[in-house]
């Protein structure tokens, strides 16, 4: 279903700064994909202190309620620099909840592109050639930590375009699996930029997500993120997975009855 683009006043994401380290945070939200504007990126709100790494997301806030076998959801995140010419950029992941650990549950695939993604609603593509960053499967326990994935160096004139694909196993077995029904989960990204130019960055004590000094919502993960200064999560709430699986099973049963 096509929905008109929503416009929003842009605001800068603000990062916690530790020496030359800046960490950008994305906050949890409550937005149904059925009602979301999918065509417009929205800058993530400020978190308290001016920073150099600016994140934009589509959708933002994010809550995915219609993921089902064979019908993945896509989440775009763009990282760009302000007030700095270049920086290294790295990525960490967090995920928890039953749907992230179920053997047929959510797989989280992260790809990057040097130019904006196209046809994201139907068949995402990268005109410049995509690069696979990582694939997090249900077997990967990223509840409290994950490997650090190095992205290409970030330049002020060349943003990084990330595409996160959230997908349940696409199989008849997954469609019929009653144990998938009712499961929920949270998934998040942590992006870290380290300046590599000569511009100094004053050290500032970062606020934790949801804590004093910043409007980030409590995602339920902040107690497990002590190793990441100012790490925040843009949550993919999979609360609707049971409903979608049930509907698809019902349609399949109806078709079988009609055939018989």
TrEMBL record:
| Native source species | Herbiconiux oxytropis
Keyword Transmembrane helix (UniProt): yes
Q: What is this protein called?
A: Gram-positive cocci surface proteins LPxTG domain-containing protein
Q: Where are the transmembrane segments?
A: 225-245
- Alphabetically list the UniProt keywords: Membrane, Transmembrane, Transmembrane helix
């Amino acid at each position: 279903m096509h929905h008109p683009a929503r416009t929003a006043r842009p605001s800068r994401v603000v990062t916690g700064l530790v020496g030359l380290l800046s960490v950008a945070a994305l906050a949890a939200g409550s937005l149904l994909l059925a009602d979301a504007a999918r065509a417009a990126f929205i800058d993530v709100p400020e978190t308290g202190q001016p920073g150099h790494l600016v994140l934009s997301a589509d959708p933002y806030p994010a809550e995915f309620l219609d993921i089902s076998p064979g019908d993945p959801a896509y989440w775009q995140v763009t990282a760009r620099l302000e007030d700095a010419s270049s920086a290294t950029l790295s990525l960490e992941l967090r995920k928890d909840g039953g749907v992230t650990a179920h053997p047929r549950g959510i797989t989280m695939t992260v790809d990057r592109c040097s130019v904006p993604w196209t046809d994201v609603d139907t068949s995402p593509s990268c005109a410049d050639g995509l690069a696979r960053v990582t694939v997090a499967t249900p077997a990967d326990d990223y509840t409290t930590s994950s490997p650090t994935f190095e992205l290409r160096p970030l330049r002020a004139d060349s943003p990084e375009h990330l595409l996160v694909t959230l997908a349940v196993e696409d199989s008849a077995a997954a469609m019929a699996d009653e144990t998938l029904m009712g499961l929920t989960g949270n998934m998040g990204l942590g992006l870290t930029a380290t300046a590599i130019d000569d511009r100094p960055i004053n050290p500032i004590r970062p606020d934790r997500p949801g804590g004093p000094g910043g409007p980030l919502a409590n995602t339920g993960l902040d107690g497990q993120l002590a190793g990441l200064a100012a790490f925040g999560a843009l949550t993919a709430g999979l609360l609707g997975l049971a409903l979608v699986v049930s509907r698809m099973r019902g349609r399949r049963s109806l078709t079988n009855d009609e055939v018989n």
